[in-house]
Amino acid sequence: MMAYSEDHIALAAEYALGTLDADERAQVETMMAVDTEFTALVHAWEYRLGVLNQMVGSIEPRPIVWENIRAAVGHSGPQAPLVLPDAAPPPPATPFVPEATPVADNWGTDTANVIQLSGRVRRWRNVASFATAAAAALIAMLGLQVYQPELLPNGLRPKPRTQVVEVKTAPPPAAAQYVALLQKDAGSPAFILTVDAATKNFTVRKVGAQPEPGKSYELWIVSDKLQRPRSLGVIGGNDFTARPVLSSYDADLVNKATYAVSLEPEGGSPTAAPTGPIVFTGKLIETVPPAPAPAR
């Protein structure tokens, strides 16, 4: 990238601020037309100082302002007719005099250098003043974004941030588990019945029972609270059979009842009662106690 002098940088900054006169603006625009890097320098200053325009809203001036301007420049009243002066006679010819070199003053300072230096100082003072104002505007904008974002334009308001908070809850306490060995005697369990106290769903696992040709095993619940045994369904031919039919019974009845398996015709009893022999029985025992409720 081309290295620019301090005057070029100051010109670019003042062009972005709009403080140059017509000749200086024409000079900057000519340089921008032929030098893309200088154009980028001007755009960089416009980006840095553009926050000043965003912080100030547009305000329509009152009609009296224009009248005051016209009065200040002497055009508020009727204007006198324009009178052109008479043409002046041509000046007498003067002899050629060689151009004088810059004369130093009593302090030994070159006048042209003084003018150039004063112009550079003026530019840098202007740039420093506006840079300070831009920094103050940025600080004010950041403060408003934190404490009073509603006072800023919509384009400068910070976007709301969403924070996801994960709340871990304790798992529900485990329900009690009950198991019954359905068997003919203590040494030959045929099925294992498992009941979940919370859902009252039960699972029957085949252990030692052998299938009978043309026959089906059917599970029954027997209790003094029931007028007759109630069927819980036919035990399937797979190793596990799950049913939810205990949900309609009282928990105390389920825990204290006797469970029996009868040998029925294929597909189950044709009536609402066992028709074949009762081959296996058992009662539930608690194997997993319920977990205590968590302390508040």
What does this structure look like?
The chain has 7 helices and 9 strands, in the order ααααααββββββαβββ. It is rod-shaped, with a radius of gyration of 51 Å. It is α+β, with helices and mostly antiparallel strands and 296 residues long. It has helices at residues 6-17, 22-34, 36-49, 51-55, 63-72, 111-147, 251-256; strands spanning 177-183, 189-196, 202-206, 215-222, 230-234, 240-243, 258-265, 278-283, 285-288. The chain folds into 2 domains: 1-56 and 116-158, no CATH class; 177-288, Sandwich (Immunoglobulin-like), CATH 2.60.40.
Briefly say what this structure is:
By secondary structure, this protein is α+β, with helices and mostly antiparallel strands. It contains seven helices and nine strands; from the N terminus they run ααααααββββββαβββ.
CATH topology of the largest domain: Immunoglobulin-like
Query: How does the overall form come out from the CA principal axes?
Result: rod-shaped
Please state the CA-atom Rg, rounded to the nearest Å.
51 Å
Q: Which band does the percent of strand residues land in?
A: 15-25%
Biggest sheet strand line-up = 6-3-2-1-9
- Written as H for each helix and E for each strand, in order along the chain, the element string is HHHHHHEEEEEEHEEE
* Number of DSSP strand runs: 9
**What structural category characterises the helix and strand content?**
alpha+beta
The unreliable regions are: 100-117
Blueprint of the fold:
Elements lengths: L5 H12 L4 H13 L1 H14 L1 H5 L7 H10 L38 H37 L29 E7 L5 E8 L5 E5 L8 E8 L7 E5 L5 E4 L7 H6 L1 E8 L12 E6 L1 E4 L8
